[in-house]
Design brief:
Helices cover 15% and strands 33% of the residues. With 209 residues, it is α+β, with helices and mostly antiparallel strands. The strands form three sheets. Strands 2, 3, 5, 6, 7 and 10 form a six-stranded antiparallel sheet that branches. A four-stranded mixed sheet has the order 4-1-8-9, with no helix packed on it. Strands 11-12 form a two-stranded antiparallel ribbon. Strand 11 and strand 12 form a beta hairpin. The termini are far apart.
């Protein structure tokens, strides 16, 4: 009797637990993943698909492959691309990228990159996304790609996600450093980000007593 009651209690508690959906995102071939949801994704390189929860996600990646140019073959590496999108429904998604075989293909990609990509779900339906190219937004990829993306996420670009900006320091021409604090929570329902600037006094209360 005790065992039966225990099994019944375990079953009820299991059913009461929230279900966390996992979506599978299939990446294009020849993808070099740089940043995932504001964090370094170098350890994920080589994976053909990612397991991501419901909610807002941001990928920063490059396409790297051999292409033909005349009678020669050369290595092509694209600019870093930023794709921001929402996933839901515990299903499979695919990022569709152009086939890069010749220099003409890479020129087409460089001239209109966003038009060359799409995201589709398991039913073949198109998923909306925001897109940006880093070298066209005034940012340069240097030794710290994550920091560059954090700065990008503080911009007004539609592909920016302020909740993934982390905490960075920006030096002004006057030599004053401002600390911009953001919550880095790539969760299902991200909390609103709060900006904090140090070194600035809050206005005093001048209301009459």
């Amino acid at each position: 009797m005790f065992v039966r009651r225990l099994l019944g209690a375990l079953l009820v508690s299991t059913l009461a637990m929230p279900v966390i959906a996992d979506n599978t995102l299939v990446l294009p071939e020849k993808t070099k993943l740089l940043v995932l949801d504001g964090k370094d994704a170098d350890k994920l390189n080589g994976k053909k698909d990612l397991s991501l929860g419901n909610g807002r996600h941001q990928l920063v990646f490059q396409l790297k492959t051999l292409v033909r140019e005349g009678g020669d073959t050369k290595m092509f590496t694209s600019s870093p691309y930023i794709m921001t999108f929402d996933l839901s429904g515990d299903q499979a998604y695919t990022i569709n990228a152009p086939k890069l075989k010749t220099a003409r293909d890479t020129d087409k990609l460089s001239h209109s990159p966003k038009a060359q990509f799409s995201i589709t779900n398991a039913k073949g339906q198109t998923v909306p996304f925001e897109f940006s190219v880093i070298n066209k937004s005034g940012l340069l990829i240097g030794g710290d790609t994550v920091e560059d993306i954090q700065k990008f996420n503080l911009s007004d670009s539609p592909a920016a996600v302020r909740e993934m900006a982390g905490t960075i320091y920006i030096a002004t021409p006057q030599g004053i450093s401002y600390q911009v604090a953001q919550q880095s929570q790539p969760s299902v329902m991200p909390a609103p980000a709060t900006a904090v600037i140090t070194g600035v006094k809050s206005p005093q209360n001048t209301s009459p007593k």
